[in-house]
Amino acid sequence: MSIKKILFSFIYLLCAGFMQADNNNGLVGSEMCIRDRFSFIYLLCAGFMQADNNNGFAIVVDPVTYDNVRTEIELYAKAIQEKEQLVPIIVIDKWGVPDSIKNELIRLHRQSKAAIEGAVFIGDIPIPMIRDAQHLTSAFKMDQKVFGWHDSSVPSDRFYDDFDLKFTFLNKDKDEPLYFYYSLAPESVQYLQPDLYTGRIKANDENGTTRYEKIRAFLKKAIKQKYSRNVTDQILFFSGNGYVSESVTARIDEKAGILENFPWLKHQKNGIEYIDHKRDKAIKDRLKTEMQRPDLDIAILHHHGDVEIQYMNGIPLPKSTTEEIENIKLYLRESLRHAKEKGKDLDTIKVRLSKRFGDLPMSWFDGTFEPKVMVKDSLFMRSLDLFIDEFATYRPNARLVILDACFNGSFHKKQYIAGAYIFNEGNTVAVLGNSVNVLQDKWHDRYVGLMALGMRAGRLSQYNPFLEGHFFGDPTFHFTPITSSTSDINKALSDGSESFWKKQLKSLYPAVKAMALRQLVDTGKDYSALLLDTYKTSDSYLVRMEAMMLLSTYDNDAFIECLKLAVDDSYELIQRFAINFIAKSGDSRLVPAIISVAVKNNTSERCEFNTKMAMALYPEELLMPEFEKQFANITYYTDKQTVHDAIAKAIHVNTHKWKNEVDIICDDSSSVKKKIMNIRMLRNYTMHENVPSLLSYVERAKDDTVQVALWEALGWFSLSYQREIIANKAWQVSQNSKYTKAVRDEALKTYYRVTLNKK
């Protein structure tokens, strides 16, 4: 061992040991005096190790976990230094308060030497439970006034890694000591752009195994992976029941996207495997078998989910009339059992269910509550999905697992699926998961191609952030770069200049070119002309997708022009996202684009579904003339009149879908409860043409609860062509003392949200 390494080890242990001496927890507002005692030691540790001017990495651990896992943590830190060329800085959480941890991370990120680029939270690190920030999630919209704080808050480490977000401390949970509730402050930025990548290694005691044993085992596994050579050449993706409308087109195009991210797989046998839930009656055994392959690198799993369940199959498709009848009977029995659990009148439910299927015989409900039948049904239903207790004998080996599912990343719970993957004897060391429910239309694997060049896995979450999206395991994990001829991707992401990234626009590797576009936009300059030109000229699905996504942050004429083109893109994901953007825009210039999608013989079930949703947000008087104009020139339909009538009906039905709800909101005679229920609808369905009426009403509304709810809902109109008038009115209200503080604060949030004040 060199003198340098010996000295490093001594100071490293001194740093860790000294910090361990004081075990007092602080309080909000006073804990910083404790932190200041360690500032010199931290700087000494970091400064000494900074011989090569490397970035730092924070290992944040609670005192008890550090006492129990100290050896493995120090070995993990050593591996980070040796294999990642990062300066490891151990931060003992002496405070037990999120604010103090965040302040320390900010300090370490801004220090002149060994500035940290990321952090990992090991053990029982406080969990920020975020309220009043549902617009930063992809889909979470639970009523905070109806549901308890446990359920209506979002567990999120964006509190720690996005320094521009400002929060107001609300409360510490009495029953769950790690839960700290915060409200997103009105004066905060209202978008996500994390300064660090972060990850969680959080375990719990269960089945005779302590949390510390689990963490020790995981760190040993993570260290082993760091000293292994493994390129990305084995990828699996899976589609579960009911996901993205079960669009086969979406899955076909997903493979095309994977091949752009990892082009060498085109010339390799069995480089990509796909499993569809319809392959078997119970698909999980086939999936588990594939996931246990020792050479598997990345697994992308699309399915519905819960905290402890991966939902795989629905009721299998029948192959005979007998099977179909048995499936219906099973559905009836399960529905009746659920009704009983909720205390509903079973006779009423029977009649309702029978009529739903065309006056089915009441005998089809027979056996619902017979023990043998209940056991049989239960075993069958369990066979369809993957439960957390099955991980006792299940050894997934994919190094990186992307859980495109709701709740699988609920790390605030005692057990959670993402944790089951990392605290396992298999080789999984990196997992992306969601702490609450999640939107199905997400770009789940954005920038994943950079993993092939050695990008650290934690950056996948950093550069595609959602409030609910989290990384679990070792965020510094990376695969062996597929080539040594490229620049260090991690160094480039930390230090790359604008000129450097401009050069990368000429890269032949789509993932690099996409990230180059992102890095240029993040300079704060207007690159919309470049983005539009890139969309028009690029032959890469991923690059075109990236250009469109980045143009949405400008939301200008270039973005509108891009959407007009994107609805006809050959890549299903681009087309699907474009339709969603058109819905969020409401701009009349996009009417021909949405009609062009509506009149084509669309082969994507999800695009067809999204188109109907988009039509609901445009007035019929604009859509119908454009429809008649375009449809008149179509000659390829075999039964043109029938198709014409079906589309015309869809336009009429969808454009009137939410009219009654808006009338209820603006009707002074409607109850507060009914108003708020319908106001919440506006978060999903931004009724652009009704904005003037809604703004007029919110000024004269007598109940500030209604005003707050309506201003919050109008904050979801961030891409609407009406956002300017929303912003103007929101600012006026936020500065007007005649309104309550709650109303002014919510109006201020909405102002910042719809003005698109992005870096």
Describe what this molecule looks like in 3D:
The chain is built from 32 helices and 17 strands. It has 759 residues and is α/β, with parallel strands linked by helices. The protein has five domains: 3-217, no CATH class; 228-313 and 386-473, 3-Layer(aba) Sandwich (Rossmann fold), CATH 3.40.50; 321-383, no CATH class; 496-655, Leucine-rich Repeat Variant (Alpha Horseshoe); 659-754. The protein has a six-stranded mixed β-sheet, sandwiched between helices. Strand 1 (56-61), helix 4 and strand 2 form a beta-alpha-beta unit. Residues 1-51 have low confidence and may be disordered.
Keywords:
disordered N terminus, Rossmann fold, 759 residues, 4-stranded parallel β-sheet, alpha/beta, single chain, 6-stranded mixed β-sheet, 32 helices, 17 strands, 5 domains
- Largest beta sheet, briefly? 6 strands, mixed
What is the straight-line distance between the termini? 46 Å
Strand order of the biggest β-sheet:
10-9-11-15-16-17
Rg, rounded, reads: 27 Å
Helices, by number, come to: 32
- Overall 3D shape: globular
Classification by helices and strands: alpha/beta
Overall number of strands: 17
Helix content: 40-55%
Task: Itemize the secondary structure elements and their pairings.
Layout (H helix, E strand, L loop, with lengths): L2 H17 L12 H6 L1 H11 L6 E6 L1 H22 L2 E6 L5 H13 L5 E7 L4 E5 L17 H4 L1 E2 L2 H4 L5 E6 L6 E6 L12 E5 L9 H16 L8 E5 L8 H14 L10 E5 L7 H8 L6 E5 L1 E3 L2 E3 L9 H21 L4 H11 L14 H13 L2 E2 L12 E5 L12 H6 L7 E5 L23 H5 L6 E5 L15 H7 L2 H7 L5 H12 L6 H10 L3 H14 L2 H10 L5 H14 L5 H9 L5 H11 L4 H12 L8 H16 L3 H8 L5 H8 L11 H10 L3 H11 L8 H12 L6 H14 L5
Parallel strand pairs: 1-2, 1-3, 3-8, 4-7, 9-10, 9-11, 11-15, 15-16
Antiparallel strand pairs: 4-5, 6-7, 12-13, 13-14, 16-17
Helix pairs in contact: 1-3, 4-8, 11-12, 17-18, 18-20, 19-20, 19-21, 20-21, 20-22, 22-24, 23-25, 25-26, 27-28, 28-30, 29-30, 29-31, 30-32, 31-32
